[in-house]
């Protein structure tokens, strides 16, 4: 590994995470409401989507402002009450749209990453 490679990899992973985190959080709420720490743990468990409270809680606030999620407070048996986040109809629609678009987007990126792109025949420039 060359010097700086780990920094470049971290930067690339952070950019990818920023692009999909919102929809992954919405997907985690698809089947049931979740509270913040539970969302953080699920993201952490994925490995590639691990992030911090300083990222997730502002995202949840924005999702609430944008009417993609609603919140309710529920008592906890192991501490203070918890704020649970649940999808709204708008949130469910946004997730369904992302789910529809994602395979084509993923396949297009995979094609660029795995298929050789020879020089353009008329100019010699890369295609």
UniProtKB/TrEMBL annotation:
Pfam family, one: PadR
InterPro entries referenced in this protein's UniProt entry, alphabetically: ArsR-like_HTH (IPR011991), Metal_resp_DNA-bind_regulator (IPR052509), Tscrpt_reg_PadR_N (IPR005149), WH-like_DNA-bd_sf (IPR036388), WH_DNA-bd_sf (IPR036390)
Domain Transcription regulator PadR N-terminal per the UniProt entry, residue ranges: 25-97
Superkingdom of this protein's organism: Bacteria
UniProt-recorded name of the protein: PadR family transcriptional regulator
């Amino acid at each position: 590994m060359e010097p700086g490679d780990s920094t470049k990899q971290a930067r690339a992973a952070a950019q990818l995470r920023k692009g999909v985190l919102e929809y992954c959080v919405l997907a985690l709420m698809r089947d049931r409401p979740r509270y913040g720490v539970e969302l953080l743990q699920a993201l952490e468990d994925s490995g590639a989507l691990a992030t911090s409270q300083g990222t997730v809680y502002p995202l949840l606030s924005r999702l609430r402002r944008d009417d993609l999620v609603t919140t309710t407070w529920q008592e906890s048996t192991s501490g203070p009450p918890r704020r649970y986040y649940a999808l709204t109809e708008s949130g469910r629609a946004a997730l369904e749209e992302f789910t529809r678009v994602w395979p084509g987007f993923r396949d297009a990126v995979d094609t660029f990453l795995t298929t050789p792109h020879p020089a353009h025949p008329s100019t010699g420039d890369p295609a």
